[in-house]
Amino acid sequence: MGFHTAFGWFVRRDRWLSGAALAMLAMLVTVGGTGVSRANDEPPERLEEQGVVIDRGFAGGAFAAARALSDTEFEVTIRPENVPINNSAWYAFRVTADPPRTIRVTLRYQNGRHRYPPRISRDGVCWTLLPDEAIEAERQVAILQLDVDSEPLWVAAQELLTGREINAWMAEIAAHAFAEKSQIGQSLEGRPIHQLRIGNPQAEEVLFIIGRQHPPEVTGSLGLQHFVDTLAADTPRADEFRQQFQTLVIPLVNPDGVERGYWRHNVGGVDLNRDWEPFAQPETRVVRDQLLAFAEPDGPRLHAFLDFHSTHHDVFYIPTDDRDFFSAGLTARWLETLQARFPDYRVRSAPFNMRRPLATRWVVRNLNTTAIISEWGDRTPRTTIARIARGAAEELMQLLLEAVESATDAEQAAELPDAA
Hints:
Helix content is 31%, strand content 26%. It has helices spanning 3-13, 19-31, 163-174, 218-231, 236-244, 255-260, 282-291, 330-341, 359-367, 382-415, and strands spanning 46-49, 52-55, 65-68, 73-78, 92-97, 101-109, 119-121, 128-129, 135-137, 141-148, 153-156, 179-186, 192-199, 205-211, 245-250, 301-311, 315-318, 349-351, 370-377.
């Protein structure tokens, strides 16, 4: 068993390892060793051949190797940070050429297959899909035709939405008087994990949102941002919601994986959304510790927990039955109102797996609160994500406000003296 394989096995299996021991193992992984588990740290970071430069020297940049076959033919190897792993085969690189030319770049996958249609950008900010006619794709090989020149052309599995962009977005929201941004912990490699608090900090009613446990799930991040933007909007409903509720948002649970362009895991080689039982990783412990504030019977009331992800199509993974939860029946009412609001859009739902140590399962079991995984499709049009996510936020705000009003009316009625 290689060192990195052994490390991944220990952090997943041996709960008895002390924090110091885990930290020492993590440091060893960070500074040394060889093997597939650190594929994205292996040289070369840059290929310069035949007047063409291909590099991954930016946040989210990732490939395992690159080589020139001729002055117009190149091959890029894509492989995960460690195995076994699900197929979230992320890649991101930049290309320049002098003189300008059309080149063919073959993406060759190991331990995965071509999943994400390539997106291209001239500035790393504005992205478009590479036209279908410029792609020849099979299961483990994709050939891209690219027009390149002396100005960088970014090519990526999805648009880049890394820690820099997410933190800038958080700062914009935190500039409002009703919001604040704070560091609540740090990742295995020491990157900060930030939380947004939106609304009345004294409110007893709480909505909790997390995202990006899995690095490539950019559409989940986009859905989360549009959802949260709606909670922070200058509208009568959002203003009332912020008076009655505080919303806590941790949009980047896995900053190391996002920075390194990983497929699925953190730098400990662990799928964070399978670590909500052993809590072997600092990232999951940070989020858990924030949630434990709602385990106190006399503390603030957590109405719902939302975890944003991406998959092959839009779907809500929901509890099998929430009749016994706080905010009983909220899930069904929310999805019904969402479907009624968008009759042209199919609202899909399915129960999440209660046998896996997911964040949502932990919330259901330990906090007895509605927990929902909001999945957004890899290829869902970005305009659709914005429309549905904003509408979903508006409908959920309305339902939660109605629930608080109903509970208040019931409490007041219970306090009235019996009729003569």
